[in-house]
Design brief:
Two copies of one chain form a homodimer. Chain A is α+β, with helices and mostly antiparallel strands. Chain A has eleven helices and four strands, in the order αβαβααααααααββα. In chain A, strands 2-1-3-4 form a four-stranded mixed sheet, sandwiched between helices. The two termini of chain A are 26 Å apart. Chains A and B meet through helix 5 and strand 4 of A and helix 5 and strand 4 of B.
Chain lengths: 208, 208
């Protein structure tokens, strides 16, 4: 016998920025963790830089606070080693995520969204390649055997550009201040270090 | 047969501020975790507020960034529940840690250091009581059957006050930007979320 809760698939929202190091750790793991937990992933790309601007910051805190930035690069190397995720420290940081974010928003409900986001982030954080241009993003789409030109055109429509601005405004209104941020059953979880707790909450294993 | 590494007791340094919420989570756990791992704890109290001032901030980021502060209180409640640590959201934040930090520095190598720090932090984060005054700190010392007046006098000597300033300068020079921060084998680990990794590193179980 199933009750109403059990018959609906539990969900986790991942709010992420494709240029954010700690988003990389979660983007690489979430599909696998969620599948094993039978939880559906809702992909919510947004532009963290716009949130930082709203705080009066003109760059990432990892650039503005040099001690925190220096630590982050050590921590990322260790975390990638621990979680078996490929890692090369990017020679440019942060990379420009707007075009890739537009594609991710356009494809947020498509079956290729997870693979696309992993592809973009592997370029940046495993292969030290740019992600900013149509050529960069096309490479990722082509590797997935997707119609790159069609997708890029749709992603760069005025309507989709507006949607990305609205999604970022929505992130701000939800109180998001960093990435990745997860929402499960109305509870907010900030940071890759909370992904497992957020999945457990979605499965109903924790009270949130 | 023992080699030189095995015959020396591995160590973990905990750099912490007695008014810092995430320091509370680690201060409450570290003696137990370290004992089970046969790792020695080196207690390094410092004043995080002075580090923040060096960044140009006149208060905790949990106060200056209201979104981050709002999230932190939710996260602390959840983390305490998960780790079985008592929790009451303090009605005043941040509380004034200077006197308690002077005592902690004075007693850093004494057998009562862990119990003293837990006592101070439980006042703040479990019982919502002040920690700033001689009466507050005496309560903690008295509960441990320690000579409060003698310890308070020594802690407030000019020499010990200078040592706390020097310890905080040392934190700054080590690149510490938040608390708790752990050092093990020269590796820096920031945040309560890294305590287990830091202990594993001290035991030689991780490459750091």
């Amino acid at each position: 016998m199933q009750d109403a809760m059990e018959s609906s698939v539990p969900e986790i929202e991942i709010w992420f920025d494709l240029a954010s190091p700690y988003s990389y750790l979660s983007v690489m793991r979430i599909d696998d963790l969620a599948e094993r937990a039978r939880v559906a992933v809702r992909w919510r790309p947004f532009l963290l830089g716009a949130i930082f601007k709203s705080f009066g910051w003109d760059n990432s805190p990892f650039v503005l606070q040099k001690e925190k930035g220096a630590y982050m690069w050590q921590d990322m190397a260790r975390q990638c080693r621990k979680q078996n995720i490929p890692w090369t420290r990017p020679s440019t940081f942060p990379r420009h995520p707007v075009l890739a974010a537009r594609v991710a928003l356009y494809g947020a409900d498509a079956p290729w969204i997870g693979a696309f986001c992993r592809g973009v982030m592997l370029r940046n954080f495993a292969h030290d390649q740019d992600i900013a241009t149509e050529a960069d993003v096309s490479d990722v789409l082509n590797a997935l055997v997707l119609p790159a030109a069609t997708i890029l055109a749709a992603a760069q429509s005025d309507e989709n550009k507006s949607r990305l601005r609205e999604q970022t405004d929505r992130a701000k209104s939800l109180g998001i201040f960093g990435a990745p941020t997860f929402f499960v059953r109305g509870e907010m979880y900030w940071g890759n270090d909370r992904l497992d707790d957020a999945i457990a909450c979605a499965r109903g294993l924790a009270s949130g």
